[in-house]
Write a structure and sequence with these properties.
The protein is α+β, with helices and mostly antiparallel strands. It folds into two domains: 184 residues, Ribosomal Protein S5, domain 2 (2-Layer Sandwich), CATH 3.30.230.10; 173 residues, GHMP kinase, C-terminal domain (Alpha-Beta Plaits), CATH 3.30.70. The protein contains eleven helices and twelve strands. α6 crosses α8.
Length: 370
Amino acid sequence: MTPLPSFASLFRLEPEFRASAPGRVNLIGEHTDYNGGFVLPTAILQTTRVEMAPSSGRSIRVWSAAFPDRPPVEYELGRESKNGDWSDYVKGMTVVLAPLGLASGFCARIESDVPVGSGLSSSAALEISMGRALRSVFKLPLSDVDLARAARRAENEFVGAPVGIMDQMACSLATVSSALFLDTRSLEFENVPIPDAAAVIVIDSGIEHRHADGGYKQRRRECEEAAAALGVRELRDADEAMIERAGLPDVLARRARHVVTENRRVLETVNALRTGDLARAGELFVQSHTSMRDDFQVSVPEIDALVEIATRVQDIYGARLTGGGFGGAIVALVSAARARAAADEVAAAYTKVTGQTASIVMAGEVPISG
């Protein structure tokens, strides 16, 4: 394999700052963030890394190791335009952060092992790592929460993906050993330790998804319509009895029911982790997947098969689709002693059943590649 070019060979100068941010996996709490609800993500071991140095003038040059044969993308600060590729996330961050004190252009080299299209927040990891580098280079007055807010604005307003704030908050604040219990309305958060007896495994189905595609946007519109029909600010403020009384169209009732019950499942999972009740946490994972499949309708047959296989494997407490849906990865809670063996068993059975190749992204605190 040909070695990747260094920062110095790309830009004829040395990097002055380095920053990184992890990807994330959401344990439970899907499609609740843009409805003002609760989420429970954790960081994965794979990260996005940025090297950076300021440059004179307003020229920005950014190179990605994901496309090693391509030259750096070049644009001028204040004249960003969308390309429809990875560089839009970088441009979105410079658009949002420019008013806070980007005094000049810069050169940046990006390298990442966060899987793309797997529901593991590769875009948010890029945004946050870029934001951290820009914060250091230009001494921007930003907290980690401020960076998450800025990254969400970049993705919503420039990239055009109507995501909530969970991904950016998780990539900015989460750790591998704990779950980030986040109220997406108030942005209050707490780190909830994952019991030592448990581990998290993440398995990519091989079916790629994209947030900017129509299914995600449609679900968000349906949630907004359901909230309006119920007379509440956000579905966070609704309950099941209200949904039953309202006589909503079937699709809107399903969307609202998922959000309301998913918020409750997040709270129950937090309690289960605190008390070490892994069996209950696993049950909640399975209930969440069923709700995403039947009420929110964002699963696909390959994901359903992967979840069903995982729930039959010894020492896996429960599994579910993680991320926005329409493909991507599953997350499972498993006995720590059996994490890698269980993940291998699931991946092998998935290939036998579907003909697709699953990739083990993480098995406990062991990052897996390929």
